[in-house]
Design brief:
- 19% of the residues are buried.
- The protein is built from 6 helices and 7 strands.
- It is of the alpha+beta class.
- α3 runs parallel beside α6 and α4 packs parallel to α5.
- The strands form 2 sheets. The protein has a 5-stranded mixed β-sheet, covered by helices on one side. It has a two-stranded antiparallel ribbon with strand order 1-3.
- It is elongated.
Length: 304
């Protein structure tokens, strides 16, 4: 072989050796990174290498990140515990005064009072009921937000959900001569029956409340690809396009309904309940055209 051939062979061998070295080095780095991540997941991560290499620097950064995350988690848990205690205190401390307020106003209404004082007692009763409803709704929202209460979805009949919601609003609809109906539906979806009834009830209550006398409210369902969609359609004033992104915020009241009874918590609470179950809610409307609120519930249980 000529000198040129030997040189080419040497270069080829050197290239192979260098390639093997690079491959082994990458494998070593991947193994180290995998071990670091496994220790981090297990909660037992500690720095093992204290030199000038990039891996040592990475270990140091990961250790600082995990320490910071642990502190943040501890702080968050402390804050959640404080909120949980506050919610419990508010619920406990207000229950008896509100109950007494409602009880004594009811007794006053049943007694032989002059007409003016009867009106005053009735006003106390109405305001006490509003206060009770506000406290209960705030407690529900706070328990969902802080994870104190977590919906437990499982397969349930959607038709039964619709019928129960209609039954809850039948009396109010009848008083306003509103045609309220649920279309038959035989499918099932995955949801927490108690909390989803609350969400759907809030939406349907709004529909009946804001639909003028003699109007109509219809509730129906249909199966889509991965969701069951429940539509609540009314013939009310509708929601202007500029407000549709805001109506699910806490305490938001649209400009056209601020004089009506309400706290601006119903749609917010409905959104929170659906989101925690892997669903969502949206609205389709136009001013003066009525509106349709669509609640989306998963058809299948969430994969672990």
């Amino acid at each position: 072989m000529t000198g040129l051939s030997w040189a080419a062979l040497a270069l080829a061998v050197a290239g192979v050796v260098f390639g093997l070295w690079q491959w082994r080095r990458r494998q070593y780095i991947l193994r180290r990174l995998n071990a670091m991540l496994e220790r981090a997941i297990a909660g037992g991560f500690a720095e093992e290498c204290f030199d000038e290499t990039e891996l040592s620097a990475l270990e140091g950064k990961l250790a600082r990140f995990l320490r910071g995350s642990a502190r943040a988690k501890k702080t968050m848990e402390g804050e959640q515990a404080a909120v949980k205690a506050l919610i419990a205190d508010i619920s406990h401390q207000t229950r008896t005064p509100i109950s007494n307020l409602l009880l004594y106003s009811s007794l006053l209404l049943e007694s032989d009072l002059p007409a003016q004082q009867q009106e005053q007692a009735r006003a106390i009763m109405v305001q006490g009921e509003k206060l009770s409803f506000l406290i209960q709704t705030l407690v529900k929202a706070s328990r969902l937000e802080t994870g104190i209460v977590i919906p437990a979805p499982s397969p349930h009949s959607v038709g039964a959900l619709l019928e129960d919601a209609v039954q809850q609003e039948e009396q109010d609809a009848r008083e306003k001569a509103i045609t309220l109906r649920a279309l038959p539906f035989a499918g099932t979806a995955v949801f927490d029956s108690r909390w989803t009834s609350e969400a759907l009830g809030n939406v349907l209550n709004n529909a009946v409340k804001y639909t003028p006398a003699g109007g109509a409210v219809t509730i129906c369902a249909q199966m889509l690809g991965t969701f069951c969609r429940i539509d609540v359609t009314d013939t009310g004033p509708g929601v202007p396009e500029g407000e549709q992104a805001e109506i699910f915020n806490r305490f938001y009241r649209g400009a056209g309904v601020r004089t009506a009874e309400g706290l601006g918590l119903g749609l917010y609470l409905a959104r929170e309940i659906l989101t925690l179950q892997g669903g969502y809610i949206k609205v389709s409307s136009g001013a003066g055209q009525g509106c349709t609120f669509s609640l989306f519930l998963p058809k299948e249980p969430e994969q672990a």
